[in-house]
Structure formats: C-alpha cells, structure tokens
Amino acid sequence: MKVFLGGTCNESAWRERLIDMLQIDYFNPVVDDWNEECYLRELKERVLCDYCLYVITPLMTGVYSIAEVVDDSNKKPEKTLFCILYKDVTLDNTMVSFDEGQMRSLRRVGTMIENNGGHFFNSLDNVAKFLNEKGRINV
Fold it and tell me: How many CB atoms lie within 10 A of CB 111?
C-alpha cells in the first residue's frame, strides 16, 4: 500500500514527521528543482497510490492543494484524505498558526470532503493510524 503526500510545502516539516510514523510506502512529491518531469511523475503517482493525502498547514501560500483535494474527493473519494494542522513548525523551528476565520473555512472544506466520501483528519497521528491500519488489512 502506498500514499501520495500532497499539500503544504514551504519548509513545513509535516512530511518528515508523518513519514517517521508510517508503516506503509509513500510518495513524497517535494523536490529541490520542480520541472515538467516532476509534475508528470506527480500526476502518475496520484493515480497509482492507494491514497492521496493533502495536509494543509499555516505555511501554505498557494491554494492549488485545496483545489486538488476537492477535485479528488469528487472523482475518487474512497482514496482521498484531507488533514488540517492548526499549527506548524518550520524546519528551523518557527511556530505559525491559522487564525480562527481561516480554520472555520478549512473545516468547511473538510466537511465538504467528508460529504463527498473522503476522509477528514485534524492530526498527523490520526492520519498515520488510519493508513497503518489500512496497510495491515491489505497485507
């Protein structure tokens, strides 16, 4: 079993924290030099992976990951996972957080994902638990 790790980049350490908890395979799309080849590989992995996870943190600067997760929840809800982290710590240990208005909006997106048949989480621990349990079932 394999999970695609989409969502916030921008020096967020969420991927490293989650990878340490996972007992399944994963695809990390973050690379030093983003190019067309990387984009095409990401598209392929999103199809091949059993789950597509999108983690949104306060380090998010673009909104494309939100569009991706909503689109995936409509087209392939059974494999769509969405997680909001209220706070995030950068690789240099700077703490940032969403304000309450941003959180209200993101929770509504999470509800939309669930209503479409996807899964909505509020912690990396819960994401890892879900994926590791699914990985054990599929062995």
Answer: 11
Looking up tokens 């991706």, which residue turns up? Answer: 68
Distances (CA, A) of 40 to 9, 33, 34, 36, 43: 18, 14, 11, 6, 5
Q: What is the pLDDT of residues 11-28, one digit of tens each?
A: 888 999 999 999 999 999
Phi, psi of 24 (to 5 degrees): -130, 170
pLDDT of 61-95, one tens digit each?
Answer: 989 999 999 999 999 999 999 999 999 987 778 88
DSSP conformation letters of 67-112: HHHHHHHHH-GGGEEEEE-SEEEBTT--EEE--HHHHHHHHHHHHH
Distance of alpha carbon 54 from alpha carbon 120, whole angstroms: 10
CA torsion through residues 19, 23, 28, 32, sign? positive
**For the whole model, what pTM was predicted?**
0.92
List the beta bridge partners of residue 41: none
8 A C-beta contact, residue 113 and residue 120: yes
Q: Which residue type occupies 96?
A: V
